[in-house]
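Class, discuss our next protein.
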Amino acid sequence: MQTEARVGVVVEGGGQRALNSGHVDGGARKFSQQQQQPLHQQSQIGTVSQLLAGGVAGALSKTCTAPLARLTILFQVQGMHSDVVTLPKASIWQEASRIVGEEGFRAFWKGNLVTIAHRLPYSSVNFYAYEHYKKLLKMIPGLESRRENMGADICVHFVAGGLAGITAASVTYPLDLVRTRLAAQTNVIYYRGIWHALQTISKEEGILGLYKGLGATLLGVGPSIAISFSVYETLRSFWKLHRPGDSTVLVSLTCGSLSGIASSTATFPLDLVRRRKQLEGAGGRPHVYTTGLFGTFRHITRTEGLRGLYRGILPEYYKVVPGVGICFMTYETLKKLLADITDRS
C-alpha cells in the first residue's frame, strides 16, 4: 500500500508541479523552466493514456517485486495462530528456500494475478479521483494555484492525494483482501482462485468479510502519503537546488526510494495489522483479534512485543526501492511513447 500511495501522488498525480510552482530563487526557477516542456507533453497524452500508463506501470512493478511482497506477508502473519516463543527464527533466505522446496518457484507469484487485477482499477481510480479532488480544492478561496503561494499549492496536492488514495483503496479493497489470502496460503489450498475466494468469503463471512481490515488500511493511506510526499519533495528540492545539473530520473528515483523507506518504517505496523485483520476467519480458522483495531495493536504488543509490529520489515525495504524505480521508469517511458504516438496521429 505504501508504494501505491506514493506513486499515486508523486509520479501519477504530478507532484513535480507542486514543487516547481513554489520556488522563487534563481536555481529553482531555472529548474522549473526546464520542466515545463515535459509537463506540457504529459498533459497532451490525455486522461485515458495517463490511466493506461499508470496502470501498466503499477502492474509491472508489482509483478517484478511479487516474491518480496509474498515474503513480507508471510512474515507479517507469523505469530497470528502460533505461540511466538515456539516460532523459528527464519531469515528471508530460509523462508525463500522453504517456498521453493515445498511449493515450487512459481509460488513466489501466488496471488499475483489478483494483484494485477487490483492494480489496474486502483491506479485508474486513484488518478481520476486525484485530478477531480484537485480541481475541487482549487475552487476554495485561498487555495488557488499561484506561483507565490507555495503553501497553498502543496496543501492542494497533499489533500487531493490523500483523498484519492482513500477513495481508490475503498473501491478496490475486496481484491486487496483476496490477494492477501491467496498469498498467505502455503501447503493447504483453501481458496482456488480470485472468483472462488470472493464467493467463499461472501458465503462464510458475509459481504462485510470482504472489508476486514479496511479501517487499518484507510488509517495507513493518509500518513503514508503525507510522509512519502513530504520526504520526497523536501529531498528533491534540496538536491536540485544544490546540484541542478543531475539527471531528473536519478534524483526522482533516489528521493522516491528514500521516501518509500521512511513511509514504510512509519506505517508498517498499520500495514501488519491490516494483513492480519484480512486473514481473520480465513479457511474456517477461529478469530484471534476480537477487540477492534486498537485492541489488535495491544494484543500484538502484549504477546509478541513491539518487534512483533515490524515482522517482515526487511523484505518490505527490499521491495520498496526496486518497486518505486520500476514503476517510475515504466510510467515515464510509456508517457513518452504514448505522447509520440499522439503527435504522429
